[in-house]
Design a protein that fits this description.
Helix content is 20%, strand content 41%. By secondary structure, the protein is an alpha+beta fold. It folds into three domains: 6-111, Carboxypeptidase-like, regulatory domain (Immunoglobulin-like, Sandwich), CATH 2.60.40.1120; 118-327, Immunoglobulin-like (Sandwich); 335-392. Strands 11, 12, 15, 18, 20, 22, 23 and 25 form an eight-stranded mixed beta sheet that branches. A hairpin with a 2-residue loop joins strand 22 and strand 23 (271-281).
Amino acid sequence: MMVLALGFLGTVPEMPVAAAQGAQPGTIRVQVANRSPGGPVAGLLVHLRTTIDGRGRVVGQVLSDETGVAQFDRLPLASYQAEVERDGGRYRSAVISLSAATPHQEVSVVVYDASGDPLTIQVERQTLVVAGVEGSAPQAAVIELLTIQNPTDRAYVGDRVADPGVGLPPVYSRTLRIPMPTGSTDFVPRLGLPADEMVPIVGGWASRLPLPPGTTEVSYSYRIGYAFGLLLLDRELPYGARQFNLLVPDVGLEVASPDLAPAGGLDLQGHRYAVYSGANLPPGKRVLVRIAGFDSESRGLAVDPRGARVVAAGVLVAALALLAWRVGQTAPRDPARLATLEDQLIGSLAALDERFARGELGEPQYQEQRARLKRQLVGIMRAQRAESPAEQVS
């Protein structure tokens, strides 16, 4: 049997289980465990979802027994995902496939005790990339990446406070809140933010997914208008940020901000970016940025929309995680930083695998991004060995 990792997703309507005609029936054994105090969780309703019809319907539900196990039998050979709801948080397993070679598999769903205190979470790093100008409209393509830390042993499940004017009842949890800058449009959730788990709030968006203990990375993109070559950014930071990085194309733009200072340059995805950084920004802080000279024709700022999407893909997660080495305050050889970067790269690989399993990436793009992430992971591991006392003994 094969044990796979966890994730998060919402619940969908129940449908009966039916074995595919002529197909060998399979079995999935779901192990539910609570990572907060540890040990199995009994009496939780486990839903099993399949993508056999392309809609992701629930095909069965079973209560976990005293050992935390729920077993589904006589399943068609297809791809499945287990889902559990506990204390306001919805948790899911990784996508698992039953085939003629592997008709019986095991998958885990990890749940946590819940916390509704927003002070539970901390934004370790927020990076905003102005990728360039897409098309003829006076709009800049912007990508943001957040590295979020939950240092407790509980999952942050948010609140159920309704936002006036958005037409959604308070039954929906709001965990990670993402206020949008004035003048922004075309918000697209990306890494770690499934579109069907986003809800509108006043002035932005919020995720309904719990934030588990440890490190979580999310990214999203949007467009923002500019006029007369001037781009104004007003970024509200509801959780603050220990480090905030701004990357703009290094083509002679004039960048001014009372909150950020120049921090060198960075080559990323074949483009050169000027970097501006700020540290220890408190919750509720508004980062103000003025970028002058924003003219795609004279400055070479025009980008292919497909290129901007590549920048937003999973490989960028690792590249921006490594940005801390270039502009952060932690030394590159700090063992704790190396361990954090290793965890982030492993998480990025897992997220990339899930996107490929869901059909969001083609085979060539998936293999290219995976190879690049693995090369970066190998570099981290070599640096860790170099810092190990055992490795340094001659």
